[in-house]
Amino acid sequence: MNRLSLTQAFIFLLRRDLTLVLRNRGEFANPLLFFILVITLFPLAIGAIPELLARIAPGIIWVAALLAAMLSLDSIFRSDFEDGSLEQLLLSAHPMAVLVLAKVCAHWLVTGLPLLIMAPILAEMLGMAEEAQGILFITILLGTPVLSLIGSIGVALTIGLRKGGIILSLLVLPLYVPVLIFAASAIDGASAGFEVTKQINMLLAFLFLALSLSPWATASALRMSMS
Amino acid sequence: MFLWFHKLGSPPHFYRIAGRWIPWLLAIFAVLLLSGLYGGLFVAPPDYQQGESYRIIFIHVPSAWMSLFIYVVMAFCGVVVLVWRMKLAEVVLISSAPIGASFTFLALATGSLWGKPMWGTWWVWDARLTSELILLFLYLGVIGLHNAIDDKRIASRAVAILAIVGVVNIPIIHYSVEWWHSLHQGPTVTKFDKPSIHLSMLIPLLLMALAFKVYYVLTLFQSSRAELLKRERNSKWVEELSRGQ
Amino acid sequence: MMSEFLNMGGYAAYVWPSYGLAAVVLWLNWYLPRRQHEQLLLRLKRQHRDTGEQKHDPRS
Amino acid sequence: MSDTALLKIHDLSCIRDDRVLFEHLSLSVDGGQMLLVEGRNGSGKTSLLRILTGLKLADAGDIFWQGQSITQLGADYYEAVCYVGHHDGVKRELTCLENLRLVQAMGKPAAIELDDALEQVNLYRYGDTPVGNLSAGQKRRLALARLLVTESKLWILDEPFTSLDKKSMANFQALFEQHMAMQGLVVMTSHHDIVIPGPNLKRLDLSA
């Protein structure tokens, strides 16, 4: 019998990761709770003046989403690294970049998607303008996969370190700046009624760039960390 | 050409060559620096708008150029490390990081010192300064990652990947920050680009830029020799070297 | 003339710290690796001079 | 030795924090042979095996599989190799069957029913129990079941017999002999002495 086709292996690994998350359910709620918690801090800190909150809502939501995504990055490879199945994946008959893409997709479904569902509710809480909430949804939809893809490179580089967490944020946050800039300004522009297709196109460009380049970087970083 | 590239790659050979070059580079650097400073501080007339404070440009602009140049050199070394696994490229890559970080810090500090008299605040969210700040984080990421990994051969390969990912992101970050800056245009148009440059200002600027480049090669040779010795301390050529001292 | 030059048209408080800081940063970048290099050479000399007893000190 | 040997190690050396584990190591292993790597702890046995799998990069020298360097072969080489290291490489939350299905999905599946494979390592009764509830010996047997469910010519095993009882050890040793009889290769380390008859056993002592 010959080996599975690439897409079969991709789907198989994706399904395996999702079943793994379902088996220990608690784990994937953390990024979501962190997201909500950080956002509730801002009104407490800045005061509940509706205009002010609505004005800074895009920035707060996106910074909180970015931090929540970054905190959850570690779970992409951590459990596989500890029980040795990451080694077996590196030695599989399929190109590692595709397997990495499967794992990152699983991570996005588990962390990016809940943010996507939660964001409009929180936007409502912060009194964000109606028309901006549609754009908010699109920016989170396009932006969070990029966060997971770029983040996976950072995780792969720091997987072998004892205290990798701090270094991970130092490596990854500067690379998140372009996504943050265009996402937050898209929502800001939309709430002021401007045309925001330029920002959305930029986010799409980042997504395709990350989709095509980061799996290879992550794969070689993993191979290097495990050597 | 490949033979030269390969020969230079052998550590003892580079160690000797670099050692011989350092005094000459020091001399060239001194000449360039002095002439640049003389040109910049004495010859160049004060700017009609900013008066004497613009003379900070002779440190700020060359440092900013160097901070970008060194990161690109690091990314190039990164490719050489990953493709040919050349030990020398690993050493050059990691020895360049602190130098690049220092130039970035210098560009930021002199930028803020230059901005203070003009806008009354130490920090202004200008496009170039913000990009420079993010570049500093990229450098600190490289240095942080290298220190965090014990096995230096693996560390340099990790840093090589990070440098390449970083260099791909630099134009993207720069473009995004420029675009962001044009979006949130402050009330006063922060015209931070160089004042109207004419020859008597341009020559010292180029001299300083050249001086910084020679300085980079000079310090790179110095710290590469130290790093090479540290990495090869158990090899035969280091033994003969230290015994023959 | 000297004091006027030092005054830098009233901006002395900004121009000279810039040049001073540049000097310090550039000097440090040159001096620190040099010192590290010399210390390592000293240590290697001692390590390789008495090759009599245990040759490789793994935790060197 | 015919230089068309399947696995050829050429002038290999490996250094770990300034200590030279081994250098100028050259040997070759042909189909139907086993290479037993011996040596005291820390003498580089695991490093050598990880270099053979391609996970770890040697400091010098390289490895040839069927005449081609494994760095060029990449995934094709990995398809021919089955590696069982210190870690069992099985997911605690998944059941035995799910784990084996994953192993087959990632490698070149062998024409064998998963239940039969479990039967051979007598884990049939635990087919649907999550691996988390198994004992160390049972987990090890599941890890070794990887050899049955994939079609691989070169088996690289790091201390395969850890936490296995006498009977299982004999079982697996018979399996290795059967693999060698079909011109497969086995490279392994083990503290327990291996009694393999005749010329097919090559020994390599790293602490010599």
In words, what does this structure look like?
The complex is a heterotetramer of chains A (227), B (245), C (60) and D (208). By secondary structure, chain B is an all-alpha fold. Chain B has one domain (18-44, 51-185, 197-244). Chain B has eight helices and no strands. The longest helix of chain B is centred in the first third of the chain and has 33 residues, at 11-43. Chain B is globular. The model of chain B has no long low-confidence stretch (mean pLDDT 87). Chain C is mainly α and 60 residues long. Chain D is 32% helix and 25% strand. In chain D, helix 4 (96-106) runs parallel beside helix 6 (136-149). The two termini of chain D are 22 Å apart. Classes of the chains: A mainly alpha (227), B mainly alpha (245), C mainly alpha (60), D alpha/beta (208). Chains B and C meet through helix 3, helix 4, helix 7 and helix 8 of B and helix 2 of C.
Task: Draw up the topology in text.
The complex is a heterotetramer of chains A (227), B (245), C (60) and D (208).
Chain A: H1 6-23, H2 29-46, H3 50-72, H4 78-83, H5 85-90, H6 96-125, H7 130-158, H8 164-191, H9 197-225
Helix pairs in contact in A: 1-6, 2-3, 2-6, 3-6, 3-7, 3-8, 6-7, 6-9, 7-8, 7-9, 8-9
Chain B: H1 2-9, H2 11-43, H3 57-84, H4 87-119, H5 127-148, H6 152-183, H7 199-231, H8 236-244
Chain C: H1 2-7, H2 12-49
Largest sheet of chain A: none
* Amino- and carboxy-terminal Cα gap of chain C: 58 Å
Helix content of chain A: over 70%
Largest sheet of chain C: none
**What structural category characterises the helix and strand content of chain A?**
mainly alpha
Q: N- to C-terminal separation of chain A?
A: 31 Å
- The shape of chain A, in one word, is elongated
